[in-house]
Each structure stands twice: as structure tokens, then as C-alpha cells.
């Protein structure tokens, strides 16, 4: 029987994120209903609100979530009612050209629920990243659930952040850049994703980890979590400073966690010859960059983009949860603030002021 629940919806471009009642249909084949426990407030949700991702309004926001499976549809065997899960937006299809080549992390046709959740008047909702977890319940494809039953409830808020931003940052280092022990890594922009990249560099065994930002508060947090050097780029030229900390050569890997032409240019010139640049910050679609082709050729190396940290959730989530349980990955440090479902718009404002790494919405079972 369809369920009516409270959820955070944006009806039009730049409209406020507000509580609405929505209808959750019974799960169909391959689908599950999840009772949401926590959901992180991510910049991507605000991009949906501002119409920078698409114009398929109204949007049901939220995607960095933990939950508990409450209903399963026909043919679902990967999860069971009662399982605690992290939600993901890469439920691989197994059939697209990337999957057929064994590159599941690049799946071009990831599964989402086939049915749509709706407003009470029947208006179909577009769920952010196919999840829509700023809600008491949500409908997703079974493959969007990674089981984490051995995690205590107190850890829900922290591990849920693996569903997007933290995975994107850590994965940009471990997966996309494939940082090796002893290499140097610079991270430009140390918000939630960039700070996660700093943590990823420490996990990978990088010996020089340089954090760059314009906010001293963020730099201090990055240093607590593993940065060996910090640079405020409002006071110091970041390219010169990164070279200074790497024997004049530049870093082996530079992560651009901002996604603007000026930060990408800094990343490009702050790397060593044959170094790697990884873009993980999501750029505004209107932005462009111009680089001299002789520099692109002459500096060698690799220019990469990192999609979701090039992760495979079924593989990477359990590995990172295990590191968290061992005390080797401090996910709790990313949870700066906890709030409720009706305060999402206020959480966007807090995020924009740079006051938090992550605000997490908590719901009760």
C-alpha cells in the first residue's frame, strides 16, 4: 500500500527547500523502500535547487544517506527487510559498454527506481541523484543499497557521508590518482570533498600532503586530519608555495576540489613534470578554461576527472567502513552539525558560509 511521508522538495528554480508530503509507491521488481536514518547536506543538493543540474522540477533532495530497508520488491535478493544500508548513486547495470569492458566504476546506465515518487496531487518528483533521501522514506533500486548491518546507530551520520562527498574525495586520491606511498599530494579547496582527499592521501601513504584554501578554519581542520603543510591562497601564491614544499618541482598529484578555471590552472602548474591533475570539484556548466597546448604537451603526465571518486560502492564502502571501525578513518570528524528535516534550507545557508564540513539531517526509526 502506498505511503505518505514528509520530505524536502524544491518546486521551482531557486525556490526554498521546503517540507512537503509525498507518496511512496509499493516497491516494484528490483526496487526497495528505505526508512531514512541520516542524510548529509551536500553542495550538489543546492545545485539541484539552483537549476544547475537540470530543470526537471520539482526535485526531491538528499542523497548522502543511511537507512533501513522496510520493503522489498519482486526478485530482490541482495538486501532484506531490516538491513541497514548506505545509499549510493552508482548501482551498476552490468550491461552497458563500460560494464562489458569490466569498468563497472564507469557504468553509464546505473539503476534507479523505475517508479516515480509523487506529490500528493500526483505530480512526479525527480529524486536527486536517483535517491531523494531528505525524506522519512524513499524508493530506490536495490543495487543502490550497500548493507552495513554491523554498524552501531551512533555511527549512522558518519558512515552515511560515504554515499557521496567523502567517497568522492577519498576516491579521487585512492582510485583516480592511484597515489603511491611516498608521493606528494596537494589539494586545492578543503571543504568536505577536499578534506576527504587529504584523508585519502594520508591513507595512501603520501609523505607530503599540502592543503590549499582561502579559509584558515578549513586549513586548520585539514591539518588535524593529515595535511603536513597548509597554504592560504589569498595571502600566498599557491603554485609557488606548493613548489617550495616539494623541492621546487611541484607535487606528484594535485587535486582540484573546487572546479573553477583559476583553481584548475593552479593545479595544472603546481604539479611536477609527468604529475597527475585530478578534477573532483564539480564545475558550473558555463565555465571554460584555456591552456597553452605546448604546456599540455610539454608537462606530460595525466589530466583526469574523478566521477564519484571512481568508486564501486559494493567494494569501496565496506572497505572504508572497515577502516572507520579500526580507527584508521575518522569519519566522525566530518559531522560538524546535526539537524532535522525541516531545517535543510538553513543548513544550505550554514554550508555556504563555510561554517561546517557537513551538516547531517537525522531522522528517527
UniProtKB/TrEMBL annotation:
<keyword id="KW-0560">Oxidoreductase</keyword>
<dbReference type="InterPro" id="IPR013154">
    <property type="entry name" value="ADH-like_N"/>
</dbReference>
<dbReference type="Pfam" id="PF00107">
    <property type="entry name" value="ADH_zinc_N"/>
</dbReference>
<dbReference type="InterPro" id="IPR017816">
    <property type="entry name" value="MycoS_dep_FDH"/>
</dbReference>
<dbReference type="InterPro" id="IPR002328">
    <property type="entry name" value="ADH_Zn_CS"/>
</dbReference>
<dbReference type="GO" id="GO:0005829">
    <property type="term" value="C:cytosol"/>
</dbReference>
<comment type="similarity">
    <text>Belongs to the zinc-containing alcohol dehydrogenase family.</text>
</comment>
<dbReference type="GO" id="GO:0008270">
    <property type="term" value="F:zinc ion binding"/>
</dbReference>
<dbReference type="GO" id="GO:0050607">
    <property type="term" value="F:mycothiol-dependent formaldehyde dehydrogenase activity"/>
</dbReference>
<dbReference type="GO" id="GO:0051903">
    <property type="term" value="F:S-(hydroxymethyl)glutathione dehydrogenase [NAD(P)+] activity"/>
</dbReference>
<keyword id="KW-0520">NAD</keyword>
<dbReference type="InterPro" id="IPR011032">
    <property type="entry name" value="GroES-like_sf"/>
</dbReference>
<protein>
    <submittedName>
        <fullName>S-(Hydroxymethyl)mycothiol dehydrogenase</fullName>
        <ecNumber>1.1.1.306</ecNumber>
    </submittedName>
</protein>
<feature type="domain" description="Enoyl reductase (ER)">
    <location>
        <begin position="17"/>
        <end position="361"/>
    </location>
</feature>
<dbReference type="Pfam" id="PF08240">
    <property type="entry name" value="ADH_N"/>
</dbReference>
<keyword id="KW-0479">Metal-binding</keyword>
<dbReference type="InterPro" id="IPR020843">
    <property type="entry name" value="ER"/>
</dbReference>
<dbReference type="InterPro" id="IPR013149">
    <property type="entry name" value="ADH-like_C"/>
</dbReference>
<dbReference type="InterPro" id="IPR036291">
    <property type="entry name" value="NAD(P)-bd_dom_sf"/>
</dbReference>
<keyword id="KW-0862">Zinc</keyword>
<dbReference type="GO" id="GO:0046294">
    <property type="term" value="P:formaldehyde catabolic process"/>
</dbReference>
